[in-house]
Amino acid sequence: MSMSAAGEGDQMKVIIVGGVAGGATAAARIRRLDETAEIIVFERSGFVSYANCGLPYYIGGVIDDRRALTLQTPEGFKRRYAADIRVRSEVTAIDAAQKTVTVRDTESGREYTEKYDKLLLSPGAVPTRPGIPGADGKRVFTLRTVEDTLGIRAFIDSDRPRSAVILGGGYIGLEMAENLSRAGMTVTVVQRPGQLLNNALDFDMASFVHAELRSKGVKLLLGAEAEAAEETDGGVVLRLKGGGSVSADMLLAAVGVTPDTALARSAGIETGIKGGIVVNDRMETTVKDIYAVGDAVCVRHAVSGREALIPLAGPANKQGRIAADNICGRDSRYLGSMGSSVIKIFDITAAVTGLTEKAAERAGFDCERIVLSPPSHAEYYPGARSMTVKMVFEKGSMRLLGAQIVGGEGADKRIDVLATAIRAGMRADELKDLELAYAPPYSSAKDPVNMAGFMAENIASGLVKQFHWDETEALPKDGSVTLLDVRTPGEYSKGHAEGFVNIPVDELRERLGEIDRTKPVYVMCQSGIRSYISCRILAAEGFDCSNFSGGYRFYKCVTEEKVASQSLYPCGMEK
Ligand code: FAD
To answer: Choosing a second label site near 271 at 20 to 30 A (CA), which of 1, 252, 279, 570?
Structure first.
């Protein structure tokens, strides 16, 4: 029996604006719930259900068949879901009182109206305009749609650009930095904040990304603000505030996205941050029988509880399903977004879930962080690589707030476990109890997530105190404290933090007499394990000691932005 919200026996007519992530998902779900509903999807572009997330990889040539980008043709979608798909059709107005929309056929220019019982808006977002003169030049591009992608590819094929400047160092900017490099260009990324992926990562974790990009020849101008783009003979010059400029053959503006909500606003629907549509947890807008999902809506951040814009494909798809349920008379609720996301940047992966440390602080949490560099799988099985894990939790309650991982293999899997743990409301120390699948090619008997749990428990129980990279510079170098590096002499001689003296962990018990018992001791090793062992030895002898969080590998990457070694060797063994 089909369920219909239009009344028993009536055929419900649903109009959907936008036929990609949220809109296409909703159309398919509505059909699966109600075989009789009339479903019309209006899509402004020429494509439906396309893979936005794959677009950069078509430009870089990783995906070489453009048909792979369109998951469904309008005809295929129509056949499978018996939905009326109208591409190149823009909804230009909503009359909420009459329950009609005005549609313009963008090819013929013809305008007409359609009635609806339920209206779902999934119009997505538009690339934010950089707000500088010259941003609409012929060599300036943005990337959102298949048409944008084909335009960039056509330009590359015809003009053979050898260099590109990318304005904006977020996800799309960095995926394009990699893919334009693959396409043979020298690439410069200009980013206003002092770090890349500013909304996703803390500065320390972003250092790994900076190092990776630089090592692959991408030039980074961080803390640089664009003033104007000027077209030159065969190129474009991006002028920077305070002097300086970057010349290139093309410019990609990727400074974020803005919800595409002019249509919603003109219909009297309430909007919030950056014009995002305000919805409740049933994805209902403030106007009766109008629902909205995806990049266009404001969501509740599942960790901070604050209103947020989180433009990601997973949330858009889930919200589309929830709206469809409610349109069809069910009761489904959206629990909020956590911003779980992952990006490939050349040979590394950066993955994140929940709040960063800076976002947690902004949200008013009194938080603690831990940093560890566990191997991706058993060290003795070939191919293991170090990943760097940063986990943020609330002091006292130990509530998990967020995590960031930069590494290679297995970074994505660990972030997903942590995302699940956050969703389940777990405490940071409870991660030690998770029983996770293990065999040498995949993990270690103590998975990196378990290790994070052990560390959190050790800190919470007072077994070990820690200090961090951004506290190290301020440590006195006048002898009033002992700064101790417990790696091997070989490791120490290749580089160490200023003022640290070397006593290898395996000699520590015999050489305790060399350390002043009346002074605090700050201990560092390569990854944090030997320094932890040393802290336990010292604590047992009555020393007041603190363990450096993340180890010298982390310290060096953050302070020098050098590529951190991903290769492993047993702690304490020379390499
Ligand atoms: P969209 O999928 O953008 O669909 C909105 C559609 O509505 C558009 O096709 C538009 O033409 C149409 N439309 C708008 N207004 C009207 C109107 N008035 N009438 C008719 N049609 C209209 N997210 C991830 O989670 N992971 C990734 O790796 C990732 N990579 C991305 C890479 C790129 C290059 C881009 C652009 C986005 C990426 N995203 C990624 C984000 C993800 O694609 C979006 O979050 C998701 O597509 C949002 O779904 P949506 O339905 O809200 O909007």
So the answer is: 252
> Residue 42 CA: which ligand 1 atom is closest?
20
Query: 């070939």: which residue's tokens?
Result: 382
Of 15, 16, 17, 20, the one to substitute when testing ligand 1's pocket (max ligand atoms within 8 A of C-beta) is: 20
Judge whether 432 and 446 are in contact, CB under 8 Å.
Answer: no
Nearest atom in ligand 1 to the alpha carbon of residue 125 is 3
How far is the CA of 21 from the CAs of 249, 255, 315, in angstroms? 33, 21, 9
User: How many angstroms separate the CA atoms of 21 and 294, rounded?
Assistant: 8
Report pLDDT for 565. Answer: 54
Nearest partner of 221 among 236, 200, 238, judged by Cα = 238
Rounded CA separation 112/129 (Å): 31
Average pLDDT across each block of 10 residues of the chain; the chain has 575 residues. List them in order.
50 97 97 98 91 92 87 87 96 98 97 98 96 93 94 95 98 98 97 96 96 96 96 94 96 97 97 97 98 98 97 97 98 98 97 98 97 94 94 97 97 98 97 97 96 96 95 94 97 96 98 97 96 97 97 93 54 41
Q: What is the DSSP letter of 562?
A: P
Give the pairing type, strands 501-502 and 482-485. Answer: parallel
Using DSSP bridges, classify how beta strands 186-191 and 388-394 pair: parallel, antiparallel or unpaired. Answer: unpaired
Residue 506: other Cβ atoms inside 10 A = 13
CA-based nearest residue to 466, from 418, 430, 520:
520
Catalytic, 53? Answer yes
Closest ligand 1 atom to residue 89 Cα is: 20
Which listed residue (53, 535, 557, 571) is catalytic? Answer: 53
* The pLDDT value given to residue 1: 35
The set of protein residues with a Cβ atom below 6 angstroms from ligand 1 is: 17-18, 20-23, 42-45, 52-53, 55-56, 90-91, 122-124, 143-144, 172, 260, 263, 294-296, 311-314, 316, 341
Residue 10: predicted pLDDT: 77
Protein residue whose Cα sits closest to atom 27 of ligand 1: 53
